[in-house]
Structure formats: C-alpha cells, structure tokens
Design a protein that fits this description.
It is a single chain. The protein is α+β, with helices and mostly antiparallel strands. The protein contains nine helices and 14 strands. The strands form three sheets. The chain has a six-stranded mixed β-sheet. A five-stranded mixed β-sheet has the order 1-2-14-6-3. The radius of gyration is 18 Å and the shape is globular.
C-alpha cells in the first residue's frame, strides 16, 4: 500500500490511497465494500490501512455514497452506537464531518472529485464526495455551511484539498449534462469546452474548477485551496478510474483525520 499524503499546517493527516501495483481491477488496495470486491480483500486492505494510521478498524468510517448532497456529523454518540446502526446512518451520505481525534473519515472515488476540508483552529475535519451530480447539488457548499453552523467554523480558517479526480480534458459529457450545469447557474464559459471526439465534438466539464469556485463562494480564501491537479483517468495505474477500468473496480479512499499530535 502507498498513501498519497497532503501537507497540512496542523495536527491533521489527509491522504488518498493509491493502487500500489497489481494488474487486476481491485489490485492491490481497495477498502470500499460496495464496488464488487471480495469481502476478504476489503477487510485485509482496511486492516492494513488502519495499521498505517495507528487506529482500530472501528475508527475508520466510510459512508455508502449515492451521489446526493447529504452530510453527516460524527460525534461521540454516533461512535457509541452499534455497527449496524452506524451503517444505516451512513447510507446515502456523500459528506462526513467530525471533531473527534484519531477518527479517520473519508469518501471513496474513482474519477469523482474528493474534497478534504479542515479547520485547524477548531479541530474540525471533513471529507466530501463530489461527482457531477453532487457538484450540481453543491454538496461542498453544504458541507462548509454545516461546518460553520454546527461547529462555529470561520470560512477564512477553513482549508481545502481537491484530491485526485477526473480532469476537464478527460471528462466528456453529453448535452444533457452540459444543460444541467447551465441551468444550475454555473459559469459555462469558465468550466466547459468542446473537444474533438470520435464523432464530431463533445462537451467537457471542469469539475475541479466547479468545486474550487464553490469553495471561494463560501468564503474560503483562494490561497487556502490546494488543487492536486492529478487526473485519475490519465493516472489510472496509480489511482483507480472507473472510466478506464469500469465500475467493477476498486476505489480510492480519500481520508482525513485529526491526530492527537499538536
């Protein structure tokens, strides 16, 4: 296993998992349990990741994402609930926030855009899964809004990491998707362009920029937004890509954790 880690300026550990070699669609590292991988392999990978992070298995949380805009806040009461109840509450969730130390929260992606957020002054960490539907539904803005309302965060103190996802050059969409973004009020001249395709031209959407712009709209300073600019479609040997490998393939786990180290 290899982690692609992001530099932070406080006691926050943020990372994306890598494929780490192997030729199969799930090799060699996948902790997502709902993408067709065997339970045994997923459990083995979770164990390895938790060992790397220095936490127990029950301190690694991954929601069952559905491309919506629902956000969940994880507190001590949630952790004390039985595992079955936790899994039920995590179903249909695409963003997860916590203020608990040594608890790794994350989202799985394989071309969709993961956004990791943290406020070092308040000790808050969040992970967002923003596929194109979630981007249109402005899930990253909803997450920032809940960081402010639930935890008292100041947007000026929030920092964001836009982790590996599909690039504008690789994200080809049909006219219906283009119109959906347009009707939702996005600046199409800024986020979209037409590129040559096998038959004519096709629209391409810049999901990195869509989410970056939403963060700025929420008051997050541009200098506090780090865009990894790593395209999963192009770098599918390093990071899982559903457009390259098909939906029956592994997923990147994009995790963030408040550590107990100052």
């Amino acid at each position: 296993m290899r982690l692609f880690e992001y530099r932070t300026d406080c006691n926050i550990r943020a990372f994306s998992t890598c494929r780490g070699g192997g030729s199969g669609n799930y090799e060699s590292f996948n902790v997502t349990h709902y993408c067709g991988d065997t339970p045994e392999h997923v459990a083995e990978c979770r164990k390895e990741l938790c060992r790397e992070l220095g936490i127990d298995d029950d301190r690694l949380l991954l929601p069952r994402q559905t491309h919506g805009n629902r956000v969940i806040c994880i507190d001590k009461g949630f952790i004390e609930q039985p595992k079955q109840i936790q899994e039920e509450r995590l179903h249909g969730i695409d963003a997860i926030i916590t203020d608990l130390p040594n608890l790794c929260v994350g989202v799985s992606t394989a071309d969709c855009i993961p956004v990791l957020l943290y406020d070092g002054t308040k000790g808050i960490a969040a992970a967002v899964h923003a596929g194109w539907r979630g981007t249109v539904a402005r899930i990253v803005q909803e997450c920032v809004s809940q960081m402010r309302s639930r935890y008292g965060c100041d947007s000026g103190n929030i920092k964001a990491i836009i982790a590996p996802g599909i690039s504008k050059e690789a994200f080809e969409v049909d006219d219906e998707v283009y119109e959906t973004f347009k009707e939702s009020g996005f600046d199409m001249e800024r986020i979209a362009g037409r590129y040559p395709a096998l038959q004519g031209e096709k629209w391409h959407i810049d999901l990195w920029e869509c989410n970056r712009m939403q963060l700025v709209e929420e008051g997050i300073r541009e200098e506090n937004i780090h865009v990894s600019a790593i395209c999963t479609y192009e770098r599918y040997l390093d990071f899982f890509s559903a457009r390259r490998l098909g939906v029956n393939s592994g997923r990147i786990f994009n995790g963030i954790m408040i550590t107990d180290r100052a």
